[in-house]
Amino acid sequence: MSLLYDLSAHAVRRIYDARINTPPVLDTSTYFPQAARFAAGWSSIRDEALAVAAQRMQTIPRFHEIMPAQASLSAHDGRDWRLFILKVYGTEVERNMAACPTLAQLVSSSPDVLSASLSFLAPRKHIPCHRGPFRGVLRFQLGLAVPIDTEGRPAAVLSLNDEEHRIGSGQHLLWDDTYPHEVWNNSDELRVALLLDVRRRHMPMDMQLLSSALIASVGMVARLRGMA
Length: 228
Description:
The protein is α+β, with helices and mostly antiparallel strands. The protein has a single domain, classed as Jelly Rolls (Sandwich). It has 9 helices and 10 strands. The protein has helices at about 1-20, 30, 35-40, 40-55, 65, 70-75, 95-100, 100-110, 205-225; strands at about 80-90, 90, 115-120, 125-130, 135-145, 155-160, 165, 170-175, 180-185, 190-200. The strands form 2 sheets. A 6-stranded antiparallel beta sheet has the order 2-1-3-10-5-8, with helices on both faces. Strands 4-9-6-7 form a 4-stranded antiparallel beta sheet. The longest helix is centred in the last third of the chain and has 20 residues, at about 205-225. The radius of gyration is 17 Å and the shape is globular. It starts with a helix and ends with a helix.
């Protein structure tokens, strides 16, 4: 299954790469104007995420339990990367949305948000270098509870296309995950972040149609697997 995923992702990326040429980091006002609403509510979202962690951490699935084909990203070092999923490609997970009313309201009222998850990265966790499958979707990341290193910087590091980004608590980044990227939590504390999959704006019509078809297919697979 992992080989099949890799081959299909590579084929899809080639199509998008030939038609869309944008940098790894994108401007939120152009590509995701609703980012400002999430950023403004970050402290309330953080409080909801920490409550979820305190009450449910051991029942929140690890990434490789959600996507077994991607076990190399999550299970290789014995440290947890857990995802509390609120929405999966158009389908809301009602029990999880109910646990985070502030975040749920923002997600429900943001039509460009296809998926939403709270990401819990264990101390010293490393997510190896990888690439997302297609450019029709962008990744919005909002730091919620990010440890600080001895130099006063966010201790969690995103290396995106060989450039380092440190997204601290209350800070955000909109980025294209089809570029090579990896993540480290270089601390002895849990790192908590909000991850949104956002529909890409300003695409040629043929790419919009292809993206809509792919998004619908992923959503159907997610529902069949019981993820939503």
